[in-house]
């Protein structure tokens, strides 16, 4: 405690050595302090849980929302690592909805351009879709890092292939004009 009575100092958030991934511990034979869940025998994997109806509602402009497709891709990616039970379904839903909203914003920017007309003065201003797109991309990154951290710490298999986050721009470019 400082002389003025405030509590300062101590460990900072994020300070210290970073945790190693489970797959690194397995490869380095450092499992003495790690608890690895045994693989149950005779159990079958469950199917993907049904996608909630609010994620599939029709859009005001009538265009397709990519939530269902993104949700399925993320679920299958998690299933490949056997981490689908560790990641909360709502986190996957939030990620899928945020990605599809980002795609919607990017489509609006492509359709309407980077500039808009100010409602009162009529002068050119930056399109609101650009800032919304940027905000959605920040949310996507935050949610993705949460999901990826769970997989990184709990997956017992190393994987260097494509990840669902890599397909965002491809989905945007695949959209028919």
UniProtKB/TrEMBL annotation:
<dbReference type="Pfam" id="PF05119">
    <property type="entry name" value="Terminase_4"/>
</dbReference>
<dbReference type="InterPro" id="IPR006448">
    <property type="entry name" value="Phage_term_ssu_P27"/>
</dbReference>
<protein>
    <submittedName>
        <fullName>P27 family phage terminase small subunit</fullName>
    </submittedName>
</protein>
């Amino acid at each position: 405690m400082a002389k003025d009575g405030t509590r300062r100092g101590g460990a900072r958030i994020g300070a210290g050595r970073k945790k190693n991934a489970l797959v690194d511990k397995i490869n380095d034979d450092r499992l003495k302090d790690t608890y690895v869940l045994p693989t149950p025998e005779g159990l079958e994997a469950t199917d993907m849980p049904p996608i909630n109806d609010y994620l599939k509602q029709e859009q005001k402009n009538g265009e397709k929302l990519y939530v269902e497709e993104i949700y399925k891709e993320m679920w299958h990616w998690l299933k490949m690592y056997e981490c689908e039970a560790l990641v909360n379904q709502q986190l996957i839903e939030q990620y899928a909805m945020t990605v599809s909203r980002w795609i919607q914003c990017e489509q609006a920017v492509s359709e309407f351009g980077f500039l808009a007309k100010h409602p009162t003065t009529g002068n050119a201003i930056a399109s609101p879709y650009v800032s919304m797109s940027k905000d959605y991309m920040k949310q996507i990154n935050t949610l993705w890092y949460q999901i990826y951290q769970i997989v990184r710490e709990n997956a017992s298999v190393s994987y260097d292939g494509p990840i669902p986050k890599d397909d965002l721009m491809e989905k945007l470019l695949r959209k028919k004009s």
